[in-house]
Design a protein that fits this description.
The protein is α/β, with parallel strands linked by helices and 384 residues long. The protein is 43% helix and 12% strand. It has 13 helices and 10 strands. The chain has helices spanning 25-34, 41-48, 72-82, 136-160, 165-175, 179-198, 211-218, 221-224, 226-246, 255-264, 301-314, 358-367, 371-383, and strands spanning 59-62, 65-66, 88-91, 100-102, 105-114, 119-128, 268-271, 289-293, 323-326, 330-331. The strands form 3 sheets. It has a 6-stranded mixed beta sheet with strand order 4-5-6-7-8-9. Strands 1-3 form a two-stranded parallel sheet. A two-stranded parallel ribbon has the order 2-10. A hairpin with a 2-residue loop joins strand 4 and strand 5. Helix 11 (301-314) runs parallel beside helix 12 (358-367). It is globular, with a radius of gyration of 22 Å.
Length: 384
């Protein structure tokens, strides 16, 4: 998202009766800016200049991050600047439901569902680029999933605009949202629906996602003030959560189907966010390991390391041990936001401080794992 400052700023003016219901030229300009994939020289500078430089980190393991629309050559420059002394690395992008490539590897984060637990889950798939020639079926599955996941935005907007008044009012009652808050959200959701229809033929595919609503509202802060927009964002977030909870799961592929296809083409499989998808720990899926930490899943890190260590101790024969992974879950387009606009801004590809936390390191040592050993072992698996 570009940093947009609407003209005619008046932070005190929150009189919604005077706001036109149809998108204005200013709304159009904002919409085109937040859906643009073209970077300005200043934005390129922001991408290639990391806020954090880990000069002492020699081993870089990054197998859960999202390039979004940022060119890989700029991301590579950022990573090299972040870790000027790296000597061992495994860096694989995992765009949502879309295969992307960095260096000699490709990856994807797949939305699917676990039938046994009737719950949505996600899988990280990683593979060497030579496997791409066998990815036809997987790509078809991802195309279906991508389109279905993108349809959630239109359901989200439908609720916000009042086409599903029952759900909207249920969230309003639960959150205690004021009428002004609801009207503001409804008004701008309607504008977004019009703008999406108006520009549907020329929009980048990756622009059709839920955070388009957040970005459009954030661009209204200079005009209406942080206080009002912050209240609206909190309400809209609650609506989004409700829509995601109600989103039908049966149109996703089963986790077992995705894993079977991934294994058939020689891909590695990692479970991210097990704190959110904890039942999957009991499913005994054919995976290489589990993510035990990322910026939004830190509460059970010690417990998850112990669970994997226990599973490995009980494993018999030539069963491959389950590896410990940590995901920075970086979204590169967030680097274009102003500081303070979003909590994902501090995330950096390959920066996972839990590896160096003394209490976590103690458990990792007991489990026989560290960054270097996981890099080496997983790299060998992907090559086999």
């Amino acid at each position: 998202m570009k940093n947009i400052k609407p003209a005619g700023l008046c932070p005190q003016a929150a009189d919604l009766d005077s706001v036109p219901e149809a998108p204005t030229e200013e709304d159009e300009r904002i919409f085109l800016a937040i859906t643009s994939t073209t970077l300005t020289p200043e934005e390129e500078r922001r991408i290639t200049t990391p806020d954090t430089v880990a000069a002492r980190q020699a081993n870089v393991l990054a197998v859960h991050w999202h390039p979004e629309h940022i060119p890989m050559q700029l991301i590579e420059r950022r990573i090299n600047a972040s870790f000027p002394n790296k000597s061992l690395e495994l860096i694989i992008p995992t765009q949502h439901n879309e295969i992307t490539t960095f260096g000699g590897y490709s990856g994807v984060e797949v939305d699917c569902y676990s039938a046994g637990f009737n719950q949505k889950v996600q899988l990280l798939l990683h593979f060497e680029n030579r496997r791409l020639e066998r990815s036809g079926v997987l790509r078809s599955m991802l195309t279906h999933t991508f389109r279905y996941r993108a349809s959630q935005l239109f359901e989200f907007l439908s609720v916000l605009t009042g086409k599903d008044e029952e759900r909207l009012q249920a969230v309003a009652a639960f959150t205690g949202a004021a009428e002004e808050t609801i009207r503001f959200a409804r008004l701008h959701a309607r504008k977004l629906e019009v703008l999406l229809e108006r520009h549907q033929d020329g929009l980048p595919v990756g622009a059709i996602k839920n955070k388009l609503v957040r970005n459009f509202l954030d661009a209204m802060r200079p005009r209406y003030g942080d206080r009002l927009v912050a209240r609206v964002q909190a309400f809209v977030q609650a609506v989004k959560i409700r829509v995601k909870e109600d989103f039908p799961l049966l149109y996703f592929y089963r986790a077992s189907e995705v894993i079977e296809e991934a294994r058939g083409m020689g891909a590695g499989v990692v479970i991210p966010h097990p704190e959110q998808f904890w039942p999957i720990l009991m499913a005994e899926y054919d995976v290489d390991g589990y993510e035990v930490w990322n910026p939004q899943s830190q509460r059970y890190t010690d417990f998850l390391i112990e669970v994997l260590a226990r599973k490995n101790r009980k494993a018999r024969g030539e069963a491959r041990r389950l590896l410990v992974f940590m995901g920075d879950d970086t979204h590169l387009s967030e680097k274009l936001l102003n500081k303070g606009q979003n909590g994902k801004l501090p995330r950096e590809v390959g920066l996972q401080p839990a590896w160096d936390d003394l209490s976590v390191r103690k458990r990792l040592l007991a489990a026989g794992m560290d960054r270097a050993s996981v890099i080496n072992e997983y790299t060998a698996r992907l090559a086999s």
